[in-house]
Amino acid sequence: MITPHAVGADAVPRTAHTADLPAAELRAARALMDLAFDGDFSDEDWAHGLGGMHAVVHDEDGVLLAHGCVVQRRILHNGRSLRVGYVENVAVRPDRQRQGLGGRVMSALERIVDGGYDLGVLSPSDEGEQLYRAHGWVTWPGRVGTLGPQGPRSMPDEDPPMLWRADLDPAHELLIDWRDGDVF
After folding, report:
1. pLDDT digits over 44-83, tens only?
2. Strand pairing report for 64-77 and 53-58
3. Residue 9 above 50 pLDDT?
4. Which residues neighbour 23 within 8 Å (Cβ) at sequence distance 6 or greater?
5. What's the pTM value of the predicted model, to 2 decimals?
């Protein structure tokens, strides 16, 4: 059994791959998504965050307070295929928001992105955008699209993603790999 880190002034989120999280902890993370997103979080949304690295924060009693994860995706940009650390499923219990837990989770996820990917990408919720901006994430100013089963497809109505440590030319479209559900 993995012992959760208690929340304190110096608490650091524990990171682990999906395969290394106990089933009960994954169920708690899934339940946290429903709670934090007020029921507006699908099984497809949850599946987008599986198979990657998770950052979790628990209280002294082992209750999951905050969660986020990074999964690998690919973006085509200006003739290059880039390894992307795509941030998914970031949430904090509503009764514990605005206490720095989301920032701790993001710092852990950014460390993972910095160590293993060309750049970070995420699709912000309206509520989360301020947190990401405070951490240095910037909104992509260019066009976006996807490379899917029918080939490249522009997505002019898609809200732009936010990027971490990216030096990309906005004159060239970002084409992200296809997936079921929300592409970004």
Report:
1. 999 999 999 999 999 999 999 999 999 999 999 999 999 9
2. antiparallel
3. no
4. none
5. 0.92
Residues linked to residue 153 through DSSP beta bridges, in sequence order: 146
Q: Return the number of other C-beta atoms located less than 10 Å from residue 179's C-beta.
A: 16
Identify which of 104, 101, 120 has the alpha carbon closest to the alpha carbon of residue 112. 120
Would the pLDDT of 8 be above 80?
no
Within 8 A by CB and 6+ apart from 58, the residues are 4, 5, 6, 7, 14, 64, 65
Residue 91 is encoded by which pair of tokens? 């949430």
Q: In this predicted model, what pLDDT tens digit does every residue of 78-119 receive, in sequence order?
A: 999 999 999 999 999 999 999 999 999 999 999 999 999 999
The pLDDT score that the predictor gives to residue 39 is 86
Residue pair 24/2 in contact by the 8 Å Cβ criterion: no
Separation CA 174–CA 139 (nearest Å): 13
